[in-house]
Specification:
Elements: H1 2-24, H2 41-47, H3 55-61, E1 65-73, E2 85-87, E3 90-91, E4 112-113, E5 119-129, E6 135-138, H4 140-143, E7 148-152, E8 158-167, E9 172-176, E10 198-203, E11 211-222, E12 232-235, E13 247-249, E14 255-263, E15 273-277, H5 278-291, E16 297-298, E17 301-305, H6 308-313, E18 322-327, H7 332-335, E19 343-347, E20 350-351, H8 355-363, E21 370-377, E22 380-387, E23 389-390, E24 417-421, E25 433-438, H9 443-446, E26 454-458, E27 461-462, H10 466-478, E28 483-490, E29 493-500
Antiparallel strand pairs: 1-5, 1-7, 2-14, 3-5, 4-5, 5-6, 6-9, 7-8, 8-9, 10-11, 10-13, 11-12, 12-15, 13-14, 14-15, 16-23, 17-18, 18-19, 19-20, 19-21, 21-22, 24-25, 25-26, 26-27, 26-28, 28-29
Length: about 500
Amino acid sequence: MKVLRAAIVAVPCAAALGVAAWLIGTDASAPRRDSRGLLDFAAISKSMGAPSSFADMVQVTKPAVIGVRTKSAEGSDAQGLASPLDRFGRVEPPKSERPKSEPDFPSGLEAQRTPDARKILTTQGSGFFISADGYAVTNSHVVEGNQTVEIQTDDQKTYPARVVGADTVSDIALLKVDGRDDFAFVTLADAPPRVGDWILAVGNPFGLGGSVTAGIVSARERNLGMTSYDDLIQIDAPVNQGASGGPTFDVHGHVIGINTMILSPSGGSIGIAFAIPAETVRAVIPQLKEKGSVTRGWLGIQFQPVTPDIAESLGLREARGVVVVDSQPDGPAGKAGITSTDVITSINDEAVKDSRDLAKKINRIVPGTSLNLGILQQGAQKTVSVMIGERPQSQTSVRSPPRFAGPASNVPRGPELKLAPANSIPGIGGEGVVVTDVDLNGRAAAQGLEPGDIIFEVNGKQVRSPDDVRNALREARNGGRRTVLIRLNSGEAARLVAIPVDAV
């Protein structure tokens, strides 16, 4: 252990010594001092990749960035979201309702009235041209519910645009402005950025238009749980409402992503923004241009990562792959015999790393393609042939029964969980066993169990009563297991949770 720690310390020390030697001039080719004998930090920064100015790059790229305006009636679905994890789409209130400290916004953003006295609200977003003949990209949520929008170019000219196609899964929309073939445009980056790379965000925050902010790539492959397609780039360049759909550039002027959401407790920038990577844009845009929608592969399952606790519950030697939470009987996986608690470890002999990896791989497979899934089913390794289906354009979530609001009488008590048959709780009914109370200091609570969760299976066996749960836990305990895997509905989502065998 001491040797390992010494090695870890030695690397940054060696790097620091190398930088120090370079600064004082041991390398004859490196910039050292200016005419006054001082270190030339401007030259040093430029040599190390930090630009002294973004002005030249902005001059080339900003003309391709556009403002996107849509109109919707008050109360419609196109009014945007209000959440700490917020889309950037901005709904403009009438001037009379704005705080006095708020600056005046460009004209044309005031609320109007429909014949039925509803307000017409204007939503601001951003976008950018990807071709000289008027194709432009923005966020799907910016144009949601609209077939036509208005765009404003960097030279303050406005044009009507039509929505060629929009994809809510990736949050990408393709627009078309007709009548010109000489628009300034930008191109997508060929390679993903590195964490720490300089980036530039250009957009239309608060309707101001043509605003430029700089920062770095803070992280890559962020999964925020918003969709199965999450694979976002995190940046720290300040971005605000109205900047949604705008581009993030690398220092070469190539688009590395589309700004799509921010993390903010106040609705303003705190330096945590997320962009859809160019790789996703490149995969989606051709389909939107060709047919107005995106076709994706589909297995018909819900799944989650295999954690160490889940691996232990399933008797696996290591945590790898993804575990199936639920499998639709008439879906591609269900028809192939894949069921809940099966673990998918590979696709065509290529290892599945995690949930995001599986989602990306399946999304990109053409429906109708046959592939082989490597799975672990009841501890046995199998290979199953599956014909990939087409992901439905809109999938309606099956609503779970209402969450339990209070303790039930005569509820069996256990060390960590209190349970009751679902059909004994007024307003819930149905099958399964309801969690009515949880010991907040126990491991079950640490795994996220809450009152109102409904347990349907324990170790793959259906349960209808607290005794069924206790018997399943006792059987696992007698078999030398420390945890069991339960399948439950929590709110509207199904998931698998490993709980201790003595939880009930």
